[in-house]
Amino acid sequence: MILENDFSFFDWEYLQLEKPTDIYVKKLSNMKEQFIDNSVVLKILSSADLVLYKVEKFEPEKGKGNLIFSVTSLYPGTVGREYFFTQGHYHQNDFAEIYICLKGKGLLLLKDKNNEQVYNFEKGSISHINSNFAHRVVNIGDEMLKFISVYNVDAGFDYEKVIKEGGFSTKIVKSENSKSYKIETL
Ligand code: F6R
Ligand code: MN
Question: What residue's CA is closest to ligand 1, atom 14?
């Protein structure tokens, strides 16, 4: 039997998912502790909250073995010197994930307990993220960065483990002349 609900539509012109089953945003207030400069975070929050990214999901079926397709739209911008990024997580269960960048210029940070690595992640990049690595995307461009994720419904999100390990120690900040980025390690 073919299930109607197993179909959605992706608009390649506007890079937008039609019929998402869920949409959420993450704001600066949800990720306060993740940024280097807490005084800048508090200053911004004292006047307004910032939407850092939006996630649209297509999750037709919850049952074992099924997949989720999602599109993340990560705004351009900085908090102080630090470029906007996704929070980043480990998967709770042993499932890998595919990230495909549709638009923009970014970096993909991967971490495990002992190491961190930085990869270019821009329009056209495809990354197979091994289940052992926490993953975060940073927008280093001046336009919206959009990427697709495809992952198992049972992958789960473990944000706590990243926090317990002290977070990502790789920080992506504006260079002194503000013309490019530089990588700092805490
Ligand atoms: C799912 C996945 C992505 C992210 C999304 C938001 O496993 O990696 O769909 O969930 O890009 O990032 P986080 O979840 O780190 O806030
Ligand atoms: Mn993931």
Answer: 88
